[in-house]
Fold:
Amino acid sequence: MEYSQAEILQTVAMTEMEHLDVRTVTLGLSLRDCASESIERTAERAGEKIRRVADRLVRTVDEIGDEIGIRIANKRIAVTPVSMISEASTGNPVQLARAIDEAAEVVGVDFIGGYSALVHKGATHSETEFLNSIPEALAGTERLCSSVNVATTRAGINMDAVRQVGNIIKDAAERTRERGGIACAKFVCFANAVEDNPFMAGAFHGVGEPDAVINVGVSGPGVVHYAVRHAPADLPLQELAEIIKKLSFKLSRAGELVGREAARRLGLPFGIIDLSLAPTPVPGDSVANIIEAMGFERAGAHGTTAALALLTDAVKKGGAMASGSVGGMSGAFIPVSEDAGMIEAVQVGALSLDKLEAWTSVCSVGIDMVAVPGSTSAETIAAIIADEMAIGVMNNKTTAVRIIPVPGREVGEMVEYGGLLGSAPIMAASLFSSAGFIQRGGRIPAPIHSLRN
Structure:
């Protein structure tokens, strides 16, 4: 891939003035060859492989960032869904969780994802026990992230798993009560989970992936916000979309340069670039601010679903033009606690859970880093998840929920997590019960359009 001098200068300008960074270089790593008859032996082999393969990851990525002048914010690892490698092992899977977390600390990555299970059509006895281990695993580790896929367009929605996830989230919050339920910030529930997603907390290394691969996540909300804010106020929307598409093209090119160079130096294949606009708490680095710059007083106003659809589509088109390796989710993330504009919109009453649910139909994931009162029941949390899963299943797209019932907190209060996780305003959930529906269990069948063969 060749880069012109003009492209390089434009990228430098975006880096210096508009918060451009490569959000993550993520090593995808298979642990399937680490499975054994005992958790102790599996944990030992998994830790050794992570330390061996990822030994130079952080150092190499930092060197590349320094050389080309682009900040690479996070270095991460995604491993095979742990429920798969612990299936035949005797012992507590939490022991494996701790070994993976300790190895991640040794190699210096920010997060390691893959304490995960895929149970969209049903769960084995071992997988059910694995799901029950998630709260203890997340509460007892620092870098470990977890995910559960409970629905696909081809299988429908496993409502037994949805109900269990509601209880998992409540348990995880209570185990980290003194830290605002932070364990829930490391857990996400999916419909149509993506096997090559480099972003946390939902990253895992899919079974169709090679033994090890380098994936890149590029985030440029600050760049896009700057361009939209400086565009003429009467610019037609199709021309505004063209501006965003061209920027996404440049962002994708910069990200692929970093990813391919990291893969080359590490002697690994390059996988995908995920061009998802992922905000941070830094002012101006906000998806909500991009939406507002299109002509809204606040994110969450009527019309903002249409604006987010325009934004997501333009980002995907720009990335697809720039690279033949676009993957992951490549759209726009809307994590409330990690987006200063979202937080402000919630605080003034412009943005609600209902509007976030509507946005899910057109963005990358859905209800993300949303804090609700600690008194919210497990059934209500499960019902919120069920709604998001239905949107994903019916629209054949990835949707997800990362929700935190903050113990001891009520609507209107704030909870501080710090760093990339930011601070979350406690949002109101419905006061009306969904318990009867959730307690039915079973499976919501796949939609008719799943029969595509």
